[in-house]
Amino acid sequence: MKLFEIIAVAVNSLRINKLRSTLTILGIVVGIFSIISISTVIAMLQTSIEDGVSALGKNTFQIQKWPSINTGSAEERALIRNRRNISVEEYYRLQHKLKDDALLVGGELWRWGRTLKFGNEQTNPNVNLSGCTPEAFPNNNWVVEFGREFNQNEVESAAKLIILGKDIADKLFDYLDPIGQEIWMDGRKYKVLGVLESQGAVFGQSQDNFAVIPINTFLAYYGSDRNNSVNITIQSYDKAGYDKLIEITEGYFRTIRKVPPGEPNDFEIRSNEQMLKQINEMTAGVRIGAFSIAAIALLAAGIGIMNIMLVSVTERTKEIGIRKSIGAKRSNILVQFLVESITLSILGGIVGIVFGVSIGNWVGSLMNATAVIPMDWVGVGVSLCVIIGVIFGTYPAYKAANLDPIEALRYE
Known about the structure:
By secondary structure, the chain is α+β, with helices and mostly antiparallel strands. The protein has two domains: 3-51 and 277-410, no CATH class; 84-266, no CATH class. The chain is 56% helix and 16% strand. It has 14 helices and 14 strands. The protein has helices at 3-16, 18-53, 74-81, 88-97, 136-139, 152-156, 166-173, 215-222, 242-256, 272-315, 317-325, 330-366, 375-401, 405-410; strands at 60-64, 104-114, 116-118, 121-122, 127-132, 144-147, 161-164, 182-185, 188-196, 201-202, 205-206, 210-214, 231-235, 268-271. The longest helix is centred in the C-terminal third of the chain and has 44 residues, at 272-315.
């Protein structure tokens, strides 16, 4: 009996017993649905988060006061709150120490909730403002689409220049060329030097609602570094020297900050790899919970498959006897019932995968996450279905293959 004929017989057997088959595969559907739906949502969130955390440039990491994700105890959070700000002076000292080790060392300060005005147009009071050095542009993947970046001389002279994110330029200038225009922010006038390329969105939140001015201009208008903590971005020459540069930088900065030997850092080192590792650790518990539910459902489903296959063997005892009497081998019977068991399992798995991907993407879309199909977990789901079909179908198949043909023919 050819394989496709065996599959046809298996499907026909399931079709004849629709209700029984449906109830049997329901456990498979629930188990695979649990795995695929949770994995889809997590994959969507990871994709969107990765887009956000990878805003740092290639081979770039950042030193900052605050951790990107603070999951420590109350005591640890209190220690972090009491950390000293990272000063501009410390930034320049680190830049000098890394002059032979790093490709670029940039500094940046941030202030939130600014309003920018041009003529009768103005933004909402939610613009993020950065005061930075020229090195911050390549380190943050900021590319000037129109105009140019400011240079070191303009930083040192605290020039009143501004570079706009795409959203702000579109809001204030519409079809007018913004380069060279003068805008107002916090009662001060700035000349527009450039417009940045779009950074896209993360979780539906635009990353283009910000503006950039020279770091000395920022300090002149928004206070000294006692009220602001500098983020320092460092870019290595290549990937090979990236990890070594992180070690060197950590040692230099501990010395600059006078951190005693044996004491923990009073600053954070943020990299894309570290962020993704933290994200994976945070989602690990959710995966374990989903897999626990799935394991219970799949175990119940496997027992159900074994039960229905044993019932099928009993109902088809005479058929098995006829087939054996006309020359069917034990292996033929064994394969037929194994294929039926696997087919039953895979049908449930397909339904579970379809529902899991659909519901998972729907839930993810509510959080404005990017739609995905987790092909790796789809593969895992199909493999699990095959394994369950084999494990729980082996005994019924073995029992059918070993029936005595004479006794089987007598069965009523």
